[in-house]
Amino acid sequence: MAKDFTTRAEDYSKWYNELVVKADLAENSDVRGCMVIKPYGYGIWEKIQQQLDKMFKATGHQNAYFPLFIPKSYLSKEADHVEGFAKECAVVTHYRLKNAEDGSGVVVDPNAKLEEELIVRPTSETIIWNTYKNWIQSYRDLPILVNQWANVVRWEMRTRLFLRTAEFLWQEGHTAHATKDEAIAESEQMLEVYADFVENYMAVPVVKGLKTPSERFAGALETYCIEALMQDGKALQAGTSHFLGQNFAKAFDVKYATKEGKQEYVWATSWGVSTRLMGALVMSHSDDNGLVLPPKLAPIQVAIVPIYKNEEQFNAISEKAKAIQEQLEDRGISVKFDDRDTHKPGWKFAEYEFKGVPVRIAIGPRDLENNNVEVARRDTLEKSLQSMDGIDAYVAQLLKDIQKNLLDKAKARMEEKTTPVNSWEEFQEVIDNKTGFVSAHWDGTAETEQKIKELTKATIRCIPLNNPQEEGKCVFSGKPSTQRVLFAKAY
Amino acid sequence: MAKDFTTRAEDYSKWYNELVVKADLAENSDVRGCMVIKPYGYGIWEKIQQQLDKMFKATGHQNAYFPLFIPKSYLSKEADHVEGFAKECAVVTHYRLKNAEDGSGVVVDPNAKLEEELIVRPTSETIIWNTYKNWIQSYRDLPILVNQWANVVRWEMRTRLFLRTAEFLWQEGHTAHATKDEAIAESEQMLEVYADFVENYMAVPVVKGLKTPSERFAGALETYCIEALMQDGKALQAGTSHFLGQNFAKAFDVKYATKEGKQEYVWATSWGVSTRLMGALVMSHSDDNGLVLPPKLAPIQVAIVPIYKNEEQFNAISEKAKAIQEQLEDRGISVKFDDRDTHKPGWKFAEYEFKGVPVRIAIGPRDLENNNVEVARRDTLEKSLQSMDGIDAYVAQLLKDIQKNLLDKAKARMEEKTTPVNSWEEFQEVIDNKTGFVSAHWDGTAETEQKIKELTKATIRCIPLNNPQEEGKCVFSGKPSTQRVLFAKAY
Asked: Sign (positive/negative) of CA torsion A227, A232, A234, A236?
């Protein structure tokens, strides 16, 4: 399985692409920039969805569904939004095909041209706020706390599986509030939900912060984000939550009557995470032996492999294996007992290792005699003999240990790769060689931000929340600054 | 709530449309033919999805995700398929917008024309079989048992909420098999899964059958279907499962090596149900007082409404109500304790009745004194006083009774409205006046089928499975026939 597999040191980018394809997570389709998410990859995405959905509902949100298509004119209604989103997108211009006259197949019917073109949604603020207009009359109709699980399309020129694809799957929350404070509190709450999920389920530590004005979502007054750090020292934006102010309410004329009978514009937020999280998951933990999955998101948490030479042995081992499977499943652990006779144990070991199954249990004839099993953990590749008695409790604890170990390792890496610098030389040196987050003073101007980006490819990932205020000088311009911000090269 | 609400007798079609909108299930969007599924409606769809997904997985299927877009040329690869699907569809021709020179908004950039147009998937056989080509080499790779939850688009000219919309949500299973028998068994198995779900969760009885050749899915050798009967006597196709033979394998050149090393084409099935089921659900059980939902799919199964005159009473009632809520939730029953002080009890009663909440519990001060609650069931509108002791067991049983009652009522209606006829006069009389399923002999020709459709608007809904064979004469042509088939006007 792992042969012909590029190592991280050889070529990190190639390692990632090969891993995604060979571990059966996803592959490129024949449709430019669109991926096929394969069953094993989709199984991880389902676990991500289920947990996030639970967290959204626990914070009072409901799901709904809005149209795939957005009339072209909607995009123009919010000035910043159109600049950000109405550029590279899929445009539907016709609604019918007809047989080609020369019998060569089907062609677009020129008589079936739409009066107004439809855009395949790149994000749904416009169509949703056009709908909310009819849902909101008075303060009694607020807040609206709605989320949508959907596909969206952005016509990216350079695509990479999960990280940047023309079509991707995501969730987009869109909420409407009576007051500014309530909307800000909602944006902040959802950032916390994302951070909680990414750290405690994906085992990926994040920095919570604010985007600079030039990195904000098109149409937002404030963009909150969580930033993670990959093994190659590049940052990855894992989720964003936007305080939209009254921009969309004004663009779509959405007002409500207050308790006092006054008409006020509604306050808005939106927030989203996407299949991009799959990329972050893969890149955070995996190694040169393949995928490493945190137990909480692994479709298969434990694989049991029987080792036998004849049917009698197989039957005896199967009996034990099934008993263990049942004990583990009673604890809510997902188990695959791999009793296929088409593949040898060695092949199966390699397969589960490559696919990142957190725990592998092997049972052979001698194990039966000794009432033992061999337990291998994927994160450290350590193996040990364990008694069959109480194996369920042992494995349950081991899964927790693995989950924690992955987070601890990723945390240590992020800490090690976060470097305060105080000079421009140091900045360049760290960005280019040590890589990771560079914590540096910035004069707060878009001009400096842009110049640093041009010179080093590093962008300001975020201004961390609760950022300590300290006097300093901008690492680039030398102008006065009140705080450090985090720079990095990013995905 | 229910005032200004059309009755079924007045105008069945209007009743349906009003119900869907006023009960907050869905509404038309500004995008032609596309609906917005509102949170309450989406809550029902989520329950449908969850249960079906469980049943798909229990029969060995996994989920995956394939691209939204299909290259135009793919549709032409299977001759029947292109006739059926490559007509009314959304065509993407460009991938960029740009600012209009006159500043009036954005316009399509003529320089960003796609070399080959992309079709928004009306169904995914072509893109999926183009993918399976790379997944299948040998018999070891088979079967492939994959399902996709997705949105699809068919440019319908006349649309109705849930029943026929340009964009709709559905699942589409696509399986690949080594043998014909296995593929047929899969199609039949999935038909059983659908029938089981629709009858036992939606409480809608169905006839299982085969479509006639002219009603088959475009590209199928055999289409299995389940047909339900609505209250107005019109049939509704609730789900289909197709045996596709080797048509798509041949169109996309998908072969596998047998154990003996021979190259054979792969056998295929596909099967799907959609948000159309929501329409069937609404039309099967609801009445002139609003929605009636089967308990197994109701987002709120029990609503508890406190009746009080002052805070002291409210506090005392709340305490009891919350205790009951907890008892019910411990049994897995979803409960809403409606303690809003913005609405009066009468308004709440009307609201829950209109929204089809199966059981409503009211608690007033006198109930507290007598250790009683008032229980109202939505299906029969009956009310009764019940002791608070053991109320959880009572309600749990009541929910089962309601579920059963809805199915029994719908079954009785279907039986009553299934009429065997033996003459053309009788056929016309029943189709036009009594309505429902007409069981009649048919000579087996597409010509007769077409003529009957032109004359009466009735179509052959299906040839029931395990149909008794009997000698007879075609009700229209008088030619010999070996079996009766089911005709009806349909949605």
From this structure: negative
Q: How far is B167 from chain A (nearest CA, A)?
A: 7
**3-state secondary structure (DSSP) of residue A209:** strand
Q: A42–B34: do the CB atoms touch at under 8 Å?
A: no
**Per the domain annotation, does B478 fall within a domain?**
yes
Q: Tell me, what amino acid is at B280?
A: A
Q: Are residues B221 and B332 in the same domain?
A: no
User: Domains in chain A: how many in total?
Assistant: 3
Judge if B257 and B309 occupy the same domain: no
- Bridge partners of B110, per DSSP, are none
Q: How far is CA A432 from CA A429, A452, A475, B61, in A?
A: 5, 13, 16, 47
Residue A484 to residues A74, A207, A467, Cα–Cα distance (Å): 39, 14, 8
In a domain, A29, yes or no: yes
Average pLDDT over residues B401-416: 98
Examine the domain organization and report whether A168 and A234 are in the same domain.
yes
State the DSSP string of B28-70. E-SSTT-EEE-HHHHHHHHHHHHHHHHHHHHTT-EE-B--SEE
Neighbours of B440 (CB within 10 A): 27
The residue out of A391, A409, A427 marking a domain boundary is A409
One domain, residues B132 and B48:
yes
Q: β-strand A459-464 against A480-488: which pairing, if any?
A: antiparallel
CATH number at residue A170: 3.30.930.10
Per-residue pLDDT, B386: 98
On whether residue A387 sits in a domain, the answer given is yes
Q: Which residue of A has its CA nearest to B33?
A: A67
Question: What's the complex ipTM?
Answer: 0.96
Tell me which chain B residues have a C-beta less than 8 angstroms from the C-beta of A76.
105-106
Look up the pTM and report it.
0.96
Q: Identify the burial level of A156 via C-beta atoms within 10 angstroms of its C-beta, where 0-12 means exposed, 13-18 middle and 19 or more buried.
A: middle
Boundary (domain end) residue, out of A341, A376, A409: A409
Residues B367 and B260 placed together within one structural domain of the fold? no
Pairs across A and B, CB distance < 8 A = 181
- Domain of residue A358 covers 295-409
Buried b (16+ CB within 10 A) or exposed e, B68-95: bbbbbebbbbbeebbebbbbbbbbbbbb
Give the separation between CA B98 and CA A405, rounded to whole angstroms: 49
Angstrom distance (rounded) from CA B75 to CA B83: 9
DSSP secondary structure code for residue A308 in this structure = -
Q: Do B84 and B193 share a structural domain? A: yes
In order along its 491 residues, chain A shows pLDDT tens digits of 456 799 999 999 999 999 999 999 999 999 999 999 999 999 999 999 999 999 999 999 999 999 999 999 998 887 777 777 768 999 999 999 998 888 888 899 999 999 999 999 999 999 999 999 999 999 999 999 999 999 999 998 899 999 999 999 999 999 999 999 999 999 999 999 999 999 999 999 999 999 999 999 999 999 999 999 999 999 999 999 999 999 999 999 999 999 999 999 999 999 999 999 999 999 999 999 999 999 999 999 999 999 999 999 999 999 999 999 999 999 999 999 999 998 999 999 999 999 999 999 999 999 999 999 999 999 999 999 999 999 999 999 999 999 999 999 999 999 999 999 999 999 999 999 999 999 999 999 999 999 999 999 999 999 999 999 999 999 999 999 999 999 999 99
The answer to whether the Cβ–Cβ distance between B89 and A67 falls below 8 Å is no
A307 in a structural domain: yes
If you measure CA to CA, which chain B residue comes closest to A147?
B39
> Across residues B113-137, what is the average pLDDT?
97
* pLDDT given for residue A99 in this prediction: 87
Indicate if A322 and A265 belong to the same structural domain: no
Exposure class string for B310-332: b at 16+ Cβ within 10 A, else e = eeebbeebbebbeebbebbeeee
Judged by CB atoms closer than 8 Å, whether chains meet at A87 and B97 is answered as: yes
Contact B441, B483 (CB under 8 A): yes
Q: Are residues B177 and B307 in the same domain?
A: no
